[in-house]
Structure formats: C-alpha cells, structure tokens
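re: ur question from yesterday

yeah so i grabbed the chain u mentioned. its 445 aa long if i counted rite. heres the sequnce exactly as i have it in my notes:
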Amino acid sequence: MERVAIKISLGGGRRTLRRGDEGEDVRLLQEKLASFGYDAGEIDGRFGYLTEDALIEFQRDHRLRVDAVAGPEVWAALEAGVPRRRVVHEVKPGERLADLARRYDISVDGIRWMNRLRSRVRLLPGSRIVLRSSYVLAGLPAPAAATLQRAPSAQRKCISGLALYACKLLPDGTLEGGVDPALTAQARANHWKLELALSAAGDGRGGDLIRTLASRGPRRRFLGSLGERLHEERWDALFLDIGPVPLGLGAGLLAGIASIKRSFPHMPLTVALAAPYDGWKGLVSDFDYPKLGKLVDRVALALHRWDCLLLPGGKTPPREEVERWVARTARAVPPWKVLLGTPLGACRVGAHGPPVEVGYRAAVAAGLAAKRRPKPDEHGFLHLIVERGEESGRYVLAGRECLARWLALAHRYRLAGLFLHPVGLEDRRLWDVVYRRVWAEKSYV
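ran it thru and got these structure tokens back, copy pasting raw so excuse formatting
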C-alpha cells in the first residue's frame, strides 16, 4: 500500500494539543491524520469533535494511550513515517460488498470480518467501510525446488513479500549460496519484495548467527560477505531469523544489528525474535527491545519457530499465553513494526533435544502410513503419534483454528502483518483462512 512520507520533524518542537485549541499545529495535525486515512473534518486549524474522534482512532490503531491529546507520543508516531494501512470507503448508492471487493482486491468475507458485518447485510449510502491492509511475508525454505517456487504464485493475492533462505552462514562468518534468477523474476512479476533470510538454526552444521553478530571479528567477515551478496543479487530487504536470545549475548547481538544498519543504511531490516522475557529472565536480560524497535524497520515475533512457540517438554501454549507474548512485544516495540510469525508446518517432538521442523504434508503422510489421524488438543493444535521406523515420534501441527486465532490477534493489536513459514509444504486450506481475513498490501518494487 501507499507509504506516508513524513518530511517535517514533528517531535519535541510541537506543542501538546487538546480539543478547543487552534493554530497551525492543529492544522498540521489534521493534515497528517487525513493523510493516514482518518476523517478529521475540515482542515481549518480548529481542534473540534471530528479531529478528536480521528485522533482517538489513530491512538487506538497505534496502541498509544487513548486520551484524545496530541502529545509527544502522537507526534513521534506521525514522525515515524508508518505505512498507511487504513482506508476508509464511503459507500455510494447502489454499491455492494462485491463491488468493494473487486475495487480493492480483497475478499467479501474479509470486508465483513474487518467491519463486523452480518451475512447478507445491505450497505447504506453514506456509511463508512474501514479496510486495514497487512504486510504478509512468506518464508520459502532452501533449497527452493521448482515445486516450492510454484507454491507462492498460487497464493499471490495473499502475499506481499517473499523471504528466501537462500544462503547459509559458514563457521568462518562468510555466506554461501544464492538466489535462483527464476525466483527473482517471479517475485518481480507478482510485485513482491524479495528478502534475503538468514537463520540462527543452531543445527551445528553451519555458523552461529547470534555469536557471529555478537563478536567483532566474525562480524566483520560476515558484513563483508553480506555486502558482496547484496551487491551481486537484487535483494530488496534483509531478514534475520534469530529466535530466542541467549542470556548474556543480548548487548553484543544488538551491537551487531546496529552494525548492519550502519553498513547498509538503505536496506530495510527485519529481525525475528522470541517475545521479551518476563519474570527473573526479564530482569537479567541484556537485550533492549525498545532500542531494537527504533533501530530496525520491522520486528517479527518468531512464533513460526517451534523452539519459540512450544513450552518446555514440547507442550503447546494456551491461547492466553500466546496473547501475552503478543501484548509484551507490542508494548516493547511499536505495533506498526511488528509481524506475527505464524507456523504453516509441523514439528516432531522427541524425548530429548529441541523440536525438529518438518513439512505439514510430510507429517500427515507419516500419520497416514501409520494409520493415524491428527487429533486436536485443548489449545487448538493438532497432535499425531507415529510409531514407525525413523518417522517415529510425536508430531505437532498448527491447524486452521490456530491460524484464525492468530490472525485475530494481529488485527486486534493492529500489527504490521504476518510472517508465514514455511511456504510450499503446508496444508493449502490454510490459505483460505488467510484470504478471508487479510488484505495483503503490495509493494510495487
């Protein structure tokens, strides 16, 4: 969607505004609210009821304190240059939901869901329909075979960008691998941003991304190798899939992320992390989430990683716990920068060691071979127990119920969007849930 470029510094030099105030600052506030899609009334420099209502909606959408006062937090949000993700459509005589769906390239069910409209409702002329777009980033695992490359095109209406795990970090801090030119052409044809994704998988077969970024020597080699990749290949953004931050390495990791931003200031950067620690771990952690939120372009809550999602012992988290993770992240980082990581695959949980990620269809196929069907638990996850050769183990799958619940969380907390991973190995019926709930923005790079 269209991005709002704020060229005027609004921070500390602007006064606090309330209803009844007048002047150029009020006029500027009205202009900015209108540019974000909020109806502030006539732009006349008078802070009236319509301006107050628009300001309250802006504060709610950006998870700010709702007090109808344009203070430093409001000016800082306007100054941040957040994307315009809110479109208000005034219904004209004779318009139907199907007409709006064709105009904005969104599903009829999505319009109903965003506006809480009942089925078969008739639109009244003059009524307002609010649409909120989301940045939907799809993660494509490596190696990206031809079958995996075809999968995103089949769901092109639901995708804004493609994160490709095309390179592997070697123990010496350098990168090997590269993007398939055919995949680059596919991304350009579908107006997707193509993001280079690097993972801190911790599988012992490659370099450790966290320790590489936290150490000065390996960091220099990594930055040199990364610069060569970004120069040779047409990447639009960088995605660091880090996951849990070990205690004691947070400050060094943050310094490494800052080095990337200094070395590549014009390259958008997304960092995927577990939710901020709470309790005693939060007191001793040296990783500064608010500072990270100011440093990078987006932060992904890495619930697409099973090592971040599952509780100790391989237990699935209750829905209240997932919402607490989202709420803590949205408090530490501006919500308009947060992507909600969502797993489309499955994992195999063993008695010892971390969960092993597998494809959704591979887990179902293993169950069918063992004549077992996935069964839901009380938290909406699917479980499958297989006792057959090398495929033996307990499988955990995130089904449609989990996906629908997480889409509702992203909408309720006004997050920037979703990170769906892995694409190409999932149950294709999950995309029906996404299409009926999400309006994916297009970057037109």
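noticed a couple things. DSSP finds 17 helices and 17 strands in the chain. also Residues 1-11, 202-206 have pLDDT under 50 and may be disordered.
anyway ttyl
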